[in-house]
Specification:
It is a single chain. The protein is mainly α. It folds into two domains: 43 residues, no CATH class; 162 residues, Butyryl-CoA Dehydrogenase, subunit A, domain 3 (Up-down Bundle). It has nine helices and five strands, in the order H-E-E-H-H-E-E-H-H-H-H-E-H-H. The strands form two sheets. It has a three-stranded antiparallel β-sheet. Strand 3 and strand 4 form a beta hairpin. Helix 5 runs parallel beside helix 8 and helix 6 runs antiparallel to helix 8. The longest helix has 30 residues. The radius of gyration is 22 Å and the shape is elongated.
Length: 209
């Protein structure tokens, strides 16, 4: 790894929006724009780690009421109840809707907790300019980007189930305040991933050269 040339040594810079590799003229002009998408070029995103930490911690805070408060009201066959995420999972599982229960559990518990752990790992190791498992950490960041597109799946499931129940006149299902906090948590973690500059992962290589 240490024998490989870095972009700064080659005098090039990558656009963080479209990925185009451009001639690095920041030293000459003080600023430059990508010739393809006209985005302002930067060697590193300003305050990347600080912004990513802020969004991540805010997302973790919002995740607490997202689990503690009801996300869905159900009124079926004369009985009604407000359900939290886990209560909804248990309810669907007992009713035999194993697929829906599994999707909600993965989307609302497994995926968010995994994102918290991975983003925290990336931020801590990048702050420390660690050389540990740089390739694997870069793959983890790409995984977080990919998962981000499916993070609203839980909200979509609640909306779809509510629509189906009302359409078939089986009862009444309505979203509750907890789903707002869950949606806000998803957006905040996505913003955390977007503000993290993955190029920081490789800075540890230069620090120890």
């Amino acid at each position: 790894m240490s024998g490989r040339l870095r972009a700064r040594q080659l005098g090039v810079i990558g656009c963080h929006v479209c990925g185009l590799v451009c001639k690095d003229r920041l030293g000459e002009r003080g600023h430059a724009r990508c010739p393809c998408c006209h985005t302002t070029l930067r060697r590193r995103r300003p305050d990347s780690i600080g912004r990513a930490w802020a969004f991540l911690l805010a997302g973790m805070v919002f995740y607490i009421p997202a689990n503690a408060l009801p996300v869905m009201y159900t009124g079926l066959l004369g009985s009604s109840s407000d359900n939290t995420i886990l209560q909804g999972v248990i309810s669907f599982w007992k009713d035999g809707s194993y697929g829906i229960a599994l999707v909600i559990f993965v989307a609302s518990v497994v995926v968010p907790c995994t994102k918290f752990l991975i983003l925290g790992l990336l931020l801590v190791t990048s702050q420390r300019h660690s050389r540990w498992a740089m390739r694997e950490r870069a793959r983890l960041y790409r995984l977080i980007e990919l998962v981000g597109y499916w993070s609203m799946l839980d909200v979509l499931v609640v909306a779809t189930v509510a629509a189906l129940v009302k359409f078939q006149a089986l009862g009444d299902i309505e979203p509750r305040i907890g789903i707002f906090f869950f949606g806000a948590m998803v957006i905040l973690t996505m913003l955390s991933a977007l503000n993290f500059d993955p190029r920081l992962i490789w800075d540890g290589m230069a620090t120890h050269e």
